[in-house]
Specification:
Layout lengths: L6 H7 L11 H9 L4 H24 L7 H10 L17 H12 L4 H9 L9 H12 L6 H14 L12 E4 L2 E6 L6 E5 L2 E5 L12 E2 L6 E3 L33 H7 L5 H6 L17 E4 L6 E8 L2 E8 L10 E3 L5 E4 L3 E7 L2 H5 L3 E7 L4 H5 L9 E2 L6 H19 L2
Parallel strand pairs: 2-5, 3-6
Antiparallel strand pairs: 1-2, 3-4, 7-8, 8-9, 10-11, 11-14, 12-13
Helix pairs in contact: 1-3, 3-4, 3-7, 4-6, 4-7, 5-6, 7-8
Length: 418
């Protein structure tokens, strides 16, 4: 049976003419991994698009100013990623997402010079760099919010680069009008028309709005982003469901107890002979099934192999995994893409799984960073503590964190059958 794109894929990919710029591929994958709410994805796309226009303008009108455009775009695309951990701040004031977002990015290997935007986008001062100011301005301009002190700081930086006097009188986005002293912006990047299902709203400076210092805004272009009819309602700020054909809401409960034969019969990406020979845990009866969302274990006889069994469509599905034997140094920290637990050294590994069916026989595989011991269920529930690692403080309930973990796993399993 053919299934349509998931709501999250729609939010990331679907556009109308003229389209919003796509998010950087690495950012889009990160948002999928952490189960970003749809409302957050829509916001990040809008801010990223405004930031891209700002960078283009600066490059064209102030080429002497060295601006790291790539950093600005990454910062705009990830500045609110911490709201995946504190989703209540999607619709209410709060700053907990700022530090949480930076820490989340750092744990996923993002360099500090890029992760900083998540923590600093809501505050600025004279010491802020141009890149930081551009990200902050994009986060305000997209929703028609004027912040004079922020604009003054950016104007001063741009004016200094052009040899002019800092101040609004030298605001570089205007051109003098021979008919009057009033100037008008030629390329205001703020106004956007966003569709969320049947609801639509326009954001940005209203047409012909006169500014306090005698400037007036030109009617800006409209850009439409349609997120489809499955966008979560405004009151639902929890993580988006993951995995089109994965576990249903009823299947987010802990796994049922499995027998050795259940496990051997469940594997979908190896031969029956391999499934018959692989090492199955001998302590199945004592496993904490009530706290498991999936069963995972390492092969004691093959240090580069692991296995997991989850439920898909009401039946067990087993997957063989491989991961590199060499591990990172103890000082390096990584984050599991399933449960968002951070570990030092080799506590997180890139697990690769051969695809099911003909695609797997042709050598195609998919991969995901997971806890090396596959104890994600226990880390989420606080039943096991990572060695010198940790879990982020989140506003999500335990049930929501469990749903996110099982959803991330479901999305990974779905890829085996693509």
């Amino acid at each position: 049976m053919t299934t349509g794109p998931s709501p999250l894929s729609t939010a990331l990919d679907e556009t109308h003419d003229p389209p919003l710029r796509p998010l950087p591929a690495a950012v889009a994958e990160l948002l999928r991994d952490v189960g970003a709410p749809l409302r957050l994805v829509a916001h990040l796309r809008a801010v990223h698009d405004v930031a891209a226009q700002l960078v283009d303008w600066v490059g064209a009108h102030r080429p002497e100013l060295a601006v790291d455009g790539g950093a600005v775009l990454f910062g705009a695309a990830t500045h609110d990623v911490g709201k995946t951990l504190h989703p209540a701040e999607l619709s209410a004031p709060g700053s907990r997402h700022e530090e949480a977002g930076r820490d989340l990015l750092l744990a996923r290997g993002v360099p500090p010079e890029l992760a900083r935007f998540a923590a600093g986008h809501a505050s600025w001062d004279a010491a802020a760099g141009v890149e930081d100011l551009l990200v902050s301005l994009a986060d305000k301009a997209w929703k028609n919010k004027r912040v004079p002190d922020l604009e003054d700081l950016l104007v001063a930086a741009l004016s200094r680069a052009g040899g002019g006097r800092p101040g609004r009188s030298s605001w570089p986005w205007t051109s003098s009008s021979p008919a009057s002293a009033r100037t008008r912006t030629a390329d205001w990047p703020g106004r956007r028309h966003i569709r969320c299902g049947d609801a639509a709203r326009t954001i940005g400076p209203p047409d012909g709005r006169e500014l306090s210092d005698g400037k007036q805004l030109d009617p800006p272009p409209h850009v439409s982003l349609r997120l489809g009819h499955n966008l979560e309602p405004q009151g639902n700020v929890g993580p988006a469901p993951r995995g089109v054909a994965g576990r249903t809401n009823q299947e987010t409960s802990p796994m049922r107890t499995l027998t050795e034969q259940d496990i051997r019969n469940s594997f979908v990406n190896c031969s029956k002979g391999e499934a018959k020979r692989l090492a199955v845990p001998r302590d199945l009866e004592s496993r904490p099934w009530g706290d498991l969302d999936f069963l995972g274990w390492r092969d004691p006889g093959a240090p580069d192999r692991s296995y997991l069994v989850t439920e898909r469509g009401g039946r067990p599905v087993g997957v063989t995994l491989r991961f590199p034997a060499s591990q990172r140094g103890f000082l390096h920290r990584s984050m599991c893409s399933l449960c968002l637990t951070t570990h030092p050294g080799g506590g997180v590994s890139l697990m690769t799984a051969r695809k099911a069916g003909a695609a797997g026989r042709e050598g195609n595989s998919v991969g995901l960073y997971m806890c090396t011991d596959l104890a994600c269920s226990l880390y989420v529930r606080g039943k096991k503590l990572p060695e010198s690692g940790g879990r982020f403080e989140e506003s999500l309930t335990l049930e929501e964190q469990i749903a996110r973990t099982t959803g991330n796993l479901a999305a990974f399993i779905d890829k085996l059958f693509d």
